[in-house]
Amino acid sequence: MNPLAAELNEDIARCNPHTLEMLSELGHSLYFPKGILSQSAEAKEKAHRFNATIGIATEAGGPMHLTCFQEKLSAFAPKDLYPYAPPAGKPELRKLWQEKMLAENPTLAKKTLSNPVVTNALTHGLSIVADLFMEAGDHVLLPDMMWGNYTLTFVVRRGAVIKKYNTFTPAGGFDIDAFRKQLLITASEKGKAVVLLNFPNNPSGYSPTPAEVEAIRGTILEVAETGCNVVAVTDDAYFGLFYDDASLKESSFGHLAGMHPRVLAVKLDGATKEEFVWGFRVGFITFADGTGAGSEPLLKALEKKTMGIIRGTISNCPHPSQTFVINALQHPDFPAQKQQKFELLKRRANRVKEVLDSGRYDDAWSYYPFNSGYFMCLKLKRVEAERLRVHLLDQYGVGTISSGTNDLRIAFSCIEAEDIEALFDLIHQAATDLA
Ligand SMILES: Cc1ncc(COP(=O)(O)O)c(C=O)c1O
Prior knowledge:
By secondary structure, the protein is of the alpha/beta class. The protein has helices at residues 3-15, 17-22, 25-29, 36-46, 67-70, 91-104, 121-133, 150-158, 176-190, 210-225, 253-256, 271-274, 296-313, 319-330, 334-356, 385-396, 420-434; strands at residues 58-59, 62-63, 117-119, 139-143, 161-165, 192-197, 229-235, 263-270, 283-288, 365-367, 375-380, 401-404, 407-411.
């Protein structure tokens, strides 16, 4: 093992040996090399005559660039667009995101957290989690209503096994008993579990109540106390889009951070869905160790290992989009503009509920609980989702997603409020054709 990796592992073990146990073999081996990047960083500080270190080209004291790029991007300085961004992301962006996270999640105020490390959006954050913490055969707990891409990231890439539990109780709440049952099985079979919580959920559009989050926390604590290590990951892709009064308005990360030495909390979030910049690819990964105060060296070591996997895969994340997000987060109109889009999406969610609650479609479907995010799901009564999806597309020109045998996912995020009734009328017509 590289001595730098061994040093990081010692830092982790000194703070919390359970966290070291959670790392995959790859996670154990990772380190951030003192190679070109750290020599360049040193030179940036001290090389006042000539800096002949880093692999970009310079001219007239700035990065070399072509006018055809700069004439379109002239609102931004070339230094904030063209050079490589640091492997952990632009420091200003990391600081701004941390401030935003603390402001929006008051529960985090008393917690010990790593600095957020910039990722190439959430999918990349998920793959970092898989690389750091998943070994072939490890169990990842997910509700049966889950984002399908987890399979590629965890199962295909890393050989982990997704263990699904039932998502909702018949009364329409988070099925805590199903979650507990699966977690206890995994704990006894493996002594380690990766729990992935995705709220607002894709595909259902559900976010839990504070009591449900407390029950999830209690269950994780229960298995940690039996000696099981838990990596508790929150996929907060749709954070902030909470439309009703009942759901928790914070990430469950705050409730999982620092709860028990055997529970490492990992938060994945980003600008993708929250700030409506899907193609920018700006996300973050943040760690909170179960030991809380005093775990700073461990958190630094996890940041370094994360930088190592970034350096070894994509080298660093795009610079222009980090600059664009910094600009937005500092823009005086950012809160008002974001609120306006939130209200628009909330109006659509409420309109969907109103239309569905008219009773006109009750012969064809019921619907799963939804109160947040971009989506909702119909629970079809008479026809399978894939058949309906194809028929809708071929006969009516309507695109939907079949997300389960009888589940049809509707992204109300891309349907104008005034078109929602017409959309469900067409889906109903198509379902009637096939019934
Ligand atoms: C639950 C969930 N997580 C993560 C992602 C991926 O986000 P990103 O585009 O930031 O990689 C998505 C995108 O659809 C998602 O629905």
